[in-house]
Design a protein that fits this description.
Shape: elongated
CATH topology of the largest domain: Alpha-Beta Plaits
Strand order of the largest sheet: 2-3-5
Strand content: 5-15%
Number of domains: 2
Number of helices: 6
Number of strands: 5
Radius of gyration: 32 Å
CATH class of the largest domain: Alpha Beta
Oligomer: single chain
Length: 198
Amino acid sequence: MSTPTPVAIPKAPRRAKSTSKLVQWLKTITLYEIAVGMKTTLMHLLRYHPITIQYPHEKRTLPDNYRGMLGLLRYDDGTEKCIGCDLCEAACPSRVISVISAEVPGEPIKRYAKEYSMDMTRCLFCGMCVQACPVDALAMTQEFEWSTYDKRDLFLNKQQLLAIGDRNFSVRERRLEFQHPNVAFFNVALQDNRPKEF
């Protein structure tokens, strides 16, 4: 039985290894990493522009599609847009919204939200409830300063949500193009409009 011959592993050239050690030693001696960091610091120092704002006195401008506190909207005549369809409650992933709907007295076809409440401590501000609303009754405002010492202040009822909507959307446009035609047909907003011809 013959013994196996060992396989020769090629060795790296000694010169390259010693060169890399020399480069590492020079970087350590000359404090190369500190120089790179100081270069970045000096570049920012030369091109200085203030980043920090004095928050309570100065406020950053928010984008138009900012998703802040939710508010209920009204029509131009002051009536509520919400028809109590519970679609916002079904669309909410964290179960923030609670809606109890009822029929309008004397008009059994029309409905409204008898009770509407939100637990804003669990809200994700995702905007899915706004997208699910067929009559554009919910909107996301640009309010974000809602810090409080008592969590119970963040349980909002229908009157508080309507006040938020009135405060942020003083000009209440009907925006009928956002309303689903089958649901909005029974709403007050479409009383003066002709029905669509199919």
